Amino acid sequence: MNAALTVVVPTFNRVDLLRECLQSIREQSMRPAETIVVDDGSTEDVAGFISREFSEVRLVRMDKNGGFCRAANAGFRAATSEFIFLLNNDMTLDHDCIEHLMRGADARTLRTPLVLFKSDPDTIYCAGDRILTNGRPEPIGFRKPLAGSTMPARVFGVTFGAALIPHAALRRVGYLDEKFVAYFEDADFCMRARWAGLDCMLVPEAVAYHVGSASLGGKTSRRSMLCYRNHALLVAKNFPLAVILRFLPALVLERWHQAGMMLSSARAERGAIGALAVLLAGTNSLLATMAHAIRGRSHLRSRAITNREFIALLTRPDERQ
To answer: In CATH, what is the architecture of 2-210?
Structure first.
């Protein structure tokens, strides 16, 4: 057992997925000191399920469904270990995943396992995250065959679907920004961590498997609206003015791309009138978060790296492999 580690699993319903996730934690070669499940206002009997099948798991219950960020933060507050392994409920782990992640772990580095598609474990879901110069976060290696792929040791960020986070990093950077609700919240955290001088790395020997898009029930328009809003929030909070001006054309094009994705998915689900309603809702939500974004730039006043060093961490779209 590893007394330095707490696993935190936020969940909203989906006991079927949670069962497999918790079983894979139970079977780890290096078991954590504790596992915390944060029940994010589920309508399913998550508490009864935990009591019957995983009595060793500690349950934190939210009063209502508030989204991934709020649930994850509740888990962070409840955790007492030196390291926290944040895990989606639709993830399962190879039996030695935690052992590999913890080997050499330090207080200044966020770590992530290699994540494969559960339905096709020969295909990469995520090998760490990158941030493009247009502000878009992307999973590295998404849908590429595992065979022959080169794994990057250092990455811009880690996916919070499976992330080893030092408690010291939370104390320095703060918790997840709950305005994001879901999507890009990990990119925001990793940007703040990078500005604070922290590092991020992929541990390819540690392997996890992801179902994908299960947490929001596959609702594409909802996901696209959050991405549309959160991309702007991400850039407004974390790009200094000089960086925004340098990449302004690419940033504007990405705003159009995000709007197009949101409208396309909304039209497919709700028709033309429904798509217009989603556009208005997304725009209103975006405008409502801008004051928060401006306030959130305060961390840039005490940054540990220069603009030049930050830009060097970004990836141009034509540099993607």
So the answer is: Alpha-Beta Complex (3.90)
